[in-house]
User: Which sequence fits this backbone?
């Protein structure tokens, strides 16, 4: 999970990412970052997700667990 969190930090340009916060509650979250996360999922994890799908998770931790469980 640590690698994915580091990748998300790079996209969001933050040093630390609280795992219990929702993407849309992050001040850095915008549509460009959503597209960057979607591209990351497709290129590095073989997953396809819509932008709206990113917002269904209760926090970054739940999102990361889902990604790692579904990784192809």
Assistant:
């Amino acid at each position: 999970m640590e690698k994915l969190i580091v990748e998300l930090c790079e996209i969001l340009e933050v040093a630390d990412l609280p795992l219990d916060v929702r993407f849309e509650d992050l001040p850095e979250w915008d549509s460009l970052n959503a597209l960057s996360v979607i591209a990351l999922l497709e290129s590095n994890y073989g997953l396809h997700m819509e932008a709206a799908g990113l917002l269904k998770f209760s926090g970054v931790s739940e999102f990361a667990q889902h990604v790692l469980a579904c990784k192809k």
